[in-house]
Amino acid sequence: MTITSDPRTAPEKPAGDTVRSALRTGRTALGVRVGTWAVVAAAGLALPYMVALYPLQVATQGVTQGILALSIGWLLRQTGLLSFGHAAFYGVTGYVVGNLAIHTGLPPLPALLLGILGGTVLSLLFALVIARSTGIAFAMLSLALGMMLWVAAYRSRALTDGLDGMVVELHGDFLGRDVADYAGPVHAWPIVWLVLMATIGGLWLVSRTVFGRRLTAIRENEERVRFSGVSTVLPRIAAITISGFCASLAGAVAVLQKAFVSPDDLFFSASGLALIVAVIGGIGSVWGPPLGAIAFAILQALLAKSGHYQAVLGLSLMAFVLLAPGGGAQVVDRIRTAVTRRRGRSTDA
Fold first, then answer.
1. Is 109 exposed, middle or buried (0-12, 13-18, 19+ CB in 10 A)?
2. Domain spans, the chain
3. Which residues cross the membrane (predicted)?
């Protein structure tokens, strides 16, 4: 005789077991993500030994653009704030480094660190002015402030050399090597790649903290958060400043490679391009904007002679917005989900 148990009378699992099981699952998922990040970070360092010089140069430019795109995409994801002024932090970092190198003769490392500090302080000042705004008002105010800086850079030839641009003459050693060596992609790649990996890891960790979840709550329902007695302006100021710091990192690695900065680096089109590649890559993931920037750099290199890459970029943006609003990251998630389901079905069979 077979005895069957009624699920309605079966003893329930203790709540403690359920909590411990959930914690174990969470730790396992966290370990997988951290392990994947570490493997990718280590594998990326081997790229100079695997590709030719020109593809490496394209990848270096794409990763630099990816850091800027990540700063804009992260701010949009966490707070819902769309910024068209991040190029200001990117470009001002280069100008600070250039002026320090030319007028004070500072070695490369302190000049770059002070340049990053200058871009970050500028982002804080921007945040203090526009953090109370949201939606289209925030986007337009960030655009207006960024364009004011562009006009200032255009007219202040004593500090910026105007439209001619500034040649940043860094002299000395940087991380044990002559700073001039970083003009080539072989030596620049490890620096750019590690900065990207550190930025991805740092922003991902910030998103998982109480502060990151508070930003998400403010994005979803600011009025309810305000009624709970929590400030909504100060967290936004902090988020804009963190995002501006990441954009300043992009400006520092860019000036290290190019040894040149111009008002074009401050123009709103630089922010707009970073936003486009962030959307194509997917702002829902910290990996999305850098992947979108690298894909754009490759596409631009392939279509540079034809001159049609802008049309292809526009069509790609339309396709992603209509078919995969989450960008490339959403496409990857769909593929991964489909593969997982197929494996599950084959196992059940």
1. middle
2. 30-268
3. 30-52, 58-76, 88-106, 112-131, 136-154, 191-212, 233-254, 266-299, 311-332
